[in-house]
Amino acid sequence: MKKLNLPAYSFRFKSGEDGKALIFDEIRKKYVVLTPEEWVRQHFVNYLVREKSYPIALLAVEVMFKMNKLVRRADILVYNKKGEPVLIVECKAPEVNINAAVFDQIMSYNLKFRLKYIVVTNGLKHYACLINIENGEWSFLDSIPEYDTLIIDK
Prior knowledge:
Largest sheet: 6 strands, mixed
CATH architecture: Alpha-Beta Complex
Number of strands: 9
Number of helices: 3
CATH class: Alpha Beta
Strand content: 25-35%
Strand order of the largest sheet: 4-5-6-7-8-9
Radius of gyration: 15 Å
Helix content: 10-25%
CATH topology: tt1808, chain A
Shape: globular
Oligomer: single chain
Number of domains: 1
């Protein structure tokens, strides 16, 4: 797998019955197919937990939700201690450029969640934004926020 612009972490791997590479997901507590997007997702979860002090118990991966009668999946949702979502992360494979379409996707998901913080990453570039829910304006942050920032701000 491609080297990412994130710290190196150790993972557990195995081969599936069909010969596909699998990686162990600490959040879902199971092995999942190792796609380029999953490689980014697993690194970013570790980054949030180890570098930004996000409690692993307050992270959820591949969260299904309905939007306009369609089933969607949020790559990573971060919750506060009350169980309320506070940040959504959209992960893309490293070869996917982060462009307006990617931001449109996460902003449409955020219509459902109405969160102040969104993050988009392809493992090489990471963008964090602060959203003003009332007027729809948003601004880029200089870095991925620490967990304490999210819950103090809520």
